[in-house]
Structure formats: C-alpha cells, structure tokens
Amino acid sequence: MFNINNNILNVDSPPIDYFNNLLSKNSNPNYNPISFGHGIPRFTPIDYFDFNNNPIFEPSSYKYSEIRGHVKIRQFISNKLNLKLNVKADLDNFIITSGANSALFKALFLKLEQGDEVIVPSPVYFNHIMAIQMIGAITVEIDSIEKNGFQLNIPGIINQINDKTKVIILNSPNNPTGAIYDINDIKHLSEICLKKNITIILDYTYEDYIYGTDYNPLQIFNSFENLIIVGSFSKTFGITGLRIGYICADPHLIDNLCKIQDTISICAPVISQNILLELIQSESKAINKNKLSAEFSRNKLIELIKTIPQLEWITTKGAFYAFLKLPKEMNSWEFTRDLIVNKSVLVLPGTIFGETWKSYIRIAYGAVDSDEIDEGIHRIKNYLEETT
Amino acid sequence: MFNINNNILNVDSPPIDYFNNLLSKNSNPNYNPISFGHGIPRFTPIDYFDFNNNPIFEPSSYKYSEIRGHVKIRQFISNKLNLKLNVKADLDNFIITSGANSALFKALFLKLEQGDEVIVPSPVYFNHIMAIQMIGAITVEIDSIEKNGFQLNIPGIINQINDKTKVIILNSPNNPTGAIYDINDIKHLSEICLKKNITIILDYTYEDYIYGTDYNPLQIFNSFENLIIVGSFSKTFGITGLRIGYICADPHLIDNLCKIQDTISICAPVISQNILLELIQSESKAINKNKLSAEFSRNKLIELIKTIPQLEWITTKGAFYAFLKLPKEMNSWEFTRDLIVNKSVLVLPGTIFGETWKSYIRIAYGAVDSDEIDEGIHRIKNYLEETT
C-alpha cells in the first residue's frame, strides 16, 4: 500500500532506542539499570561551566544563522584543526552541521551516485552503513585485524578498490573498537586514494579521546584534494543533545554542501551555536574533565575484564569503547537482550557493527562512574558464570 | 577533479544568504537596511515568555533524546492536529524533526525513487524543488492561477498525473504567495490521489497565519493512507533558530522515517525540544503576538501597495508573504540586486520560486514593524518611479 524507497525499506531499524526501551521497560526490577549503551561522555556543561551570558535570553538564538554557521565557530574549529593539519584550513573550508551524523550523511550524499562503492573498515558505526545504503550506494566492509587491535587491513582494502570506489570512510579513533589507525597505514591509503581520485572521509568525532600516546592522523594530508573531515563538538564538550558538528573540506565542496544543508537543515540549531560560542573558552576544562573520567573508567575496565575468562578484549587507545569477544558461539543479540532482562545492564551487540562480529559486544564507558563500572562489570561476570 | 553527485551539482545555490550578504555589504550607506527577505515572524520567546525553568541548566538538554522526539512534544502536536483532523493521530503518528525543511526532505527521501515524479504547484518554495532534485526525482511544476489568488490549477495538475507520479506537495498557507488552497480543490485532489496511490505531502508550516477566515485543510482527510503532514514550530512560536518541526504520517512510515532520522540527525536538538516544552503553555500568547503583528503589517501593505501603480498584488489570506508583479518586462533578479544597492531594501526575486515568475518579487512582512513597512515600501515606490 505505501510506496517506500527500497533502499530505505531494506535498512535495519536503528538499534539504540530498541535496547534503551528494553532497559527501561523489561529490566530486572531487583537491579538498578546500568547503561553501557549510548556513546556519550559523562559531564555536560552544567558540570564545568557557569553561564554568565545565557544564550536563552539572546534574540539571535531564535533566528536563522548563515547556512555555513556562525563565523566564530568556524574560526574556532579552523584554529583547532590548523594545529594538526599540513594544509591550511580557512573559514571557507568549513560548514557547521547538526552533529557529526548529519555531517557524514551530507558528505556522502554530496559525493555518491547510485551504485558507487564505499569501503568501510569493519566493525563499523552502524549509522555509516545506514547512510550509504539509503543513498543507494554499496558498502564494501573490510574486516579490521583484531589481533593488531582492530587495525586496518590494508591489503584487504586495496584489493577491493575498483573504478566504482568513490569513498573510504576512516573513523579514527574508532567507534566501536576504540582503535586509532596507524598513521603509516592512513598515509599509504591516502597516497593510493590521491592517485585513484578516491576521497577519504575521516570521521574525527573522538579526536579528543586518545590515551597514553600522541596521535595526529591529520598530519599526513597535504591538501583537501582527497580529504573530507567530519567531526563533532558533542564528545569534546559533552553536548550530544545540542546536535552540532562540522565538515572540513575543499571550498568547492563546501559551496555544494551549502545546497544540501539549506535543503535539509537551513542551518545548525542557532541556540546550540550560541551555547557552543560560550563554551569555547572552557574547551580544555571540558576535555580534561570528560577525558580523565573516561581514562579512569578505561583503566578500571582493563583490570576488571582480566578477571572474566569468558571475555576477550584487545585493548585500544581511543574513544570510550571496549569491543569484547564473547565465548565462541554466543549470539550477541540474545546475550544483550538476556543481560538486560536478567541483570539490568545494557551493552550493544556486535551484530549491529557488522555481520562478522555477531559474538562481540560493545561497552561504552564514557558516561559511567566508578561504581557503575564496578557493579555493571560484576553483573556481566556473574551472568557469564551462570550461563556458560 | 572532485566527484560530486550530478543531481546536487545541478541544483542552484541557495539564494537567501547571497542576498543577505548583498544587503549587509553592498547596500546604500545613506539608508538603513530594511529586510523583507527571510520568512520569519517578528517576536521571539524573549518577547512573550519568562523562563522560570531554564533548559540551559537541565542536564537532559545536553543528551540524546529518543529518535522520535520527546513524548510530550508529540503529545502536544497530536492534540493540536486532532482538533482539525478527521482521523485520530496518536503518538506513533509523529516524529519530531530539525525543522520543517528537515521534515520535508526526510518525507521525500523516504518515498521517492530515482526518476519518480513530484507535482508541485508553482510558485513554489525553492527548498522543495532543491530537495526533489537532489534525491534524483523529477519536479513537475504546475503554475497556479494568479487571477484566483494563486489557487491550484486542478485540471493542469490532473493532466500531469501518470504512473511515475508519487507525490503532490501542497504548501498551504503558501510560501511565497500566501494563498490558502480551496478546501474543495484539495478534496478533489485527495480523492484522485487515493485512487492512484499518490501521497499528498501537506506542508503546514504557516498553519497559524490565516487572516479573516476559518481554514482547515486537514478536515478532508479520513486516513493517513495518502497523507503526510510536515510542519514547524518555528513560525508559531517565533523560534526559527531552534530548528524544530514534525512529520505526521502513518506509523509504518514513521517507523521507516526513524531510520532516516537516526542516520541524518539522531534526534532533533534536545535543548530546542526542552525549550519548546516550556513554551507550549504560552502557545496562544505567541500566536496572538506574532499573528497580530503580521496582520497589522499585511493591512498596511494592502493600503501602501495600492499607491504604487507599477506593482500588482492579488492579495491572499495566509502566511506572511506578498507575491507582487513587477512592470511587465522587468527582471526580478536584477531588480532585487539594484534595490539593495540603491535603496538598501531586500525583497526576494520571483525567479527563485519558479521560472514563470521572473517578473515577480516576494515581500516577507512577518518580521518588520510599522515603520519598516512604511519606510521600506516608500523606498520601493521611489525606486520604481525613478527607474520605470
């Protein structure tokens, strides 16, 4: 009866609301719910900022901004990226979007024709796959190498490049593994992409969550010829609900992205832009607070997971995700559901990050405190002891 | 060098920022700038609301909401529409989006395959055309009948319906003409659409701006089988900068729209949802204040335009737009540019609302005060006297 575009009909339903609802409605009433589900940091501006100027009382918050976004936000992010880039990013290299998902969708929508191929290292953030499928392009998933900490399978990727390959998406630091891809691997890929006119879309959402090492994947790019950066202010400032991110690309692409932005969004929410303009002065405070908390949780998690023989974790150095292997034959979707129902703990099943990963789970440790880590992992341990 | 999807490359650049920039940079320094450009109402919440609960201090404002949006907002808009609809709209008939543009794009993206045809009465809001083109569908523009106040050309529309026709977009009250389409015409079209499995997308953004008459286009629909409503909270509450709107449709379509929403936006900005939740209690205050101001401007405009023999205006009863005919051969793009440069007054050229309308201009009168109407129209009158 209803005409629906087939590409969209064939996309799986988004998983997070499903599991959130399961946690709030079907969890075990004997336990308080603990969520390792959503990828959010722990602290919001309320925890690190005093609003002297309150954007809620500014008339401009209720009116449109330029399509590209407020010039001062573009200035801020251009200054930040210019510390890392080998090519200068000016104001006209940027458009401020309604979050990094919006940025990624718009970048793919700009580049891809029906039937084009996009290479994505797997496991992969499910919204990337959904975006590619909806647009009518083809996803080519290349499994990353788990034993190397989910590093890129470079020969595997190169082997799949053909005339239809238009984009390679690199999400580093990675969701869901936390991997930070080796600089030399990215360099190698970038050189190939430059020759073959393939664009690397670098999803740089977790740029400020890197532990115990210096890491700068931007250093290897000398031009925007084969590079689009999509990023977010969400994780850095603890503001996922404001929906604000960016695209950094060649000005010609930005001009064309303005057409898409105007049509889909007109502009990023202006109240959010105005709040971000206030927060900018406290960037390092925001990062320190959230990153320290994530790092603390990560260290704790490393110790706790060691005590669970049924779980395997190749630790990684970025983002705030642990991607864990369940005992061999275990179905992660069922495990996730049963863990909620029995122990009121939410993790996400590996299945949603690619078919290969059906016996894995993702633990998001960005938002939890010390007690929740202790208690949540303890319940997972007990559950595995009871059922395996 | 850069691969860009051809559909997007072929879309015209968005016009409003271009003319806004011209007004701020190239206007005549002897005159203060007056803008009849952007379609925004005059008053923001700062003018009609006291924030006792300030959402900027609520942690939830900085975190994701459900993909569908806050249940209380869905409740509010469902109650509002149920007063007008002949079919009951429940919570699962709604998704809250980042504005009405976002709603329209997502609805079209859901429905259309490449090469599908969409009928749009012309003149037409340019973002509708841009959305259709980007998706790779085909726009079929049917000129409305000016002498009837830009009413639908029903025989013209019916004549263009064929197997490829998937959607008819009706924007009533209309941007850019202000027309409210005759209920019987919509009913006639709706019956045909039901038989031929064509969806009517009703863009209902200006629902609260109707002058001197009762008007309810929702009354003629008895099911969601052939109806998608897209709407906005922007014009009603004076909150264009919050980017918040909605889609009302069959639950099966909403379920599939959740896939698109998750991929493009995750959710509507939550700070905006929380602000709107506060404003809801003052809806009638917001509407009265903004609608009274628009109505006052409209009445003034009717009198003033009568004194300008070079301009023709078939007055209409909705929104806050006047669509005026320039002297016959005049190019509206050049007129708009020269009016900015000489008199610092911004209108929008008819060209951007469809090729037929190249000798028309749109005056947005929602945001201006009495003095601006007087002074702005006075300058337009002088300019026409000087140049024709």
Give an overview in words.
2 copies of one chain form a homodimer. With 388 residues, chain A is an alpha/beta fold. Chain A has helices spanning 6-9, 15-26, 45-48, 71-82, 100-111, 126-135, 154-160, 183-196, 234-237, 251-264, 270-279, 283-306, 332-343, 370-387; strands at 34-35, 94-97, 117-122, 138-143, 165-171, 199-203, 227-232, 245-248, 321-325, 345-346, 348-349, 360-364. The first copy, chain A, folds into 2 domains: 6-44 and 284-387, Aspartate Aminotransferase, domain 1; 54-281, Type I PLP-dependent aspartate aminotransferase-like (Major domain) (Aspartate Aminotransferase, domain 2, 3-Layer(aba) Sandwich). The first copy, chain A, contains 14 helices and 12 strands. In chain A, the strands form 3 sheets. In chain A, strands 2-8-7-6-5-3-4 form a 7-stranded mixed sheet, with helices on both faces. In chain A, helix 5 runs parallel beside helix 6, helix 5 crosses helix 10 (251-264) and helix 12 (283-306) runs parallel beside helix 14. The radius of gyration of chain A is 21 Å and the shape is globular. The first copy, chain A, starts with 5 loop residues before the first helix and ends with a helix. The relative contact order of chain A is 0.18. Chains A and B meet through helix 1, helix 2, helix 5, helix 6 and helix 10 of A and helix 1, helix 2, helix 5, helix 6 and helix 10 of B.
